[in-house]
Design brief:
By secondary structure, the chain is of the alpha+beta class. It has five helices and three strands. It has a single domain (2-95), classed as Winged helix-like DNA-binding domain superfamily/Winged helix DNA-binding domain (Arc Repressor Mutant, subunit A, Orthogonal Bundle), CATH 1.10.10.10. It is 61% helix and 15% strand.
């Protein structure tokens, strides 16, 4: 259902992870391994999401670690949409 509103597959996967698990922190390569996407595409989307304020980052040595900005103005609404979308997908699978 989210694919209608968020057309970038990689961005959608990133938003789902960080909205569903707001305390989640990882670097580009860790996220690439988790969601099985190209690290270059992930890095580009992480930068976009950080620029709009959904994510924050901090340096840990030579690595940049990203985490959810819980103060993002529409974080709670976005989190609610992600959770509802996942429940709807589960219901659809059960009834099919």
């Amino acid at each position: 259902m989210l694919d209608v509103f968020i057309t970038s597959r990689v961005r959608r996967k990133i938003i789902v992870i960080y909205a569903k698990y707001p305390d989640f922190k990882t670097h580009v390569r860790g996220l690439a391994k988790l969601i099985k996407e190209d690290a270059g595409n992930i890095q580009r989307e992480l930068k976009r999401l950080e620029k709009v304020g959904f994510l924050t980052s901090e340096r840990q040595g030579n690595t940049k670690v990203y985490s959810t900005n819980k103060q993002f103005p529409i974080f709670r609404e976005l989190q609610s949409i992600v959770l509802k979308s996942q429940r709807a997908n589960q219901q659809k699978r059960i009834t099919s």
